[in-house]
Amino acid sequence: GFGLYEGWGYKTAVDEVNKAGGLFLSKYNAKIPVRLQLYDDESRPEQVTTNTQRLVLNDKVNALLGSATPPLVLAGATVAERNRVPMVTGIAPIRAFLGANPKWNYTWDIFFDELDMTQQQFHTMDTVKSNKEVALFTDNEQDGVVMGGLWEQNAKKFGYHVAYHANFPVGTTDFGDLIRRAQSAKAQIVIAQMITPDAITLWKQMQTLNYHPHAAFFEKGAEPVQWWSALNKAAQGVMVAGYWYPTLPYPGASSLRTRFEKDTGQTYSQHIADTYTSAQVLMDAIVSAGSLDSNAINDAIGKTNKTYVVGPINFAAGPGGHTSPLPSFMLQWQNGQTQIVYPSKLATAKLVYPLPS
Hints:
It contains 12 helices and 15 strands. A hairpin with a 4-residue loop joins strand 1 and strand 2. The chain is 42% helix and 20% strand. The model has no long low-confidence stretch (mean pLDDT 97). A 4-stranded parallel beta sheet has the order 3-4-5-13. A 4-stranded parallel beta sheet has the order 7-6-8-9, with helices on both faces. Strands 10-14-15 form a 3-stranded antiparallel beta sheet.
């Protein structure tokens, strides 16, 4: 579901540069056009590896942009590191990114930090009344493992109780037994981390089994518009953490959504912002390097300290020295659109609570 947004973000940034004549490289004292080569990874890590090797060895690319979610991003990053080709990426939560390699050399990540994101659910719930009983549904992919552990810790820290924690493989189709256990635990709050198809399946089965929690946070799975398209009004009130919104005071933020929806006829996703920014960061670094030397480009990426459409980017200040964390807040699906509902200073709508039955 993220591919449409990623492709648009990358293409739009490159098209803008090429319309201006390309990137000025001081070594050649000329503007050089940018060629963007995209391959479909089919959401399979092994295909990411094949594609990235093809880009490096056959297409002889000077730099790389990442895919989406840790399994895919990390597969590409491994090839980038091995071949010493600089890569800038988003859509890979920072702790999962660093968990795979605490000392990246050629890969740079722009996304939220799970240490911050996994607190937003409890901050939001502190604004309303509940029995503070939580059911966690986390898959066995990197995000599920990392965030599941952090939610366990943060629940206790914020005065909540994890009444039931379901762990399951990606691609699970029958959640019946897990849902019944969450019901029996009387959990009024559901927090999940899973891919969109699995999240849709879980939510449909929860409705069928008449499990209606007061609040539901479906991280990753409820982010793209496919979530609402598949569930429509049944998705009303479900929340997902955010890191970008068109109302944030960053250059170009207010118009980026409009541009995407005009170009595609589709509802936007916040992923248009970090991918658009990733491409801009990479191309800015190429200009700063003044050449196509991979080490010079890589060094220039590390010196990035500028505010883009997604917000301030500064890798030197981020965990591991190769990440730039984006602050988290809480979004909620309301009538086919996501609205900021926490914190109040950023809110674009009031929190719908409890969930409509």
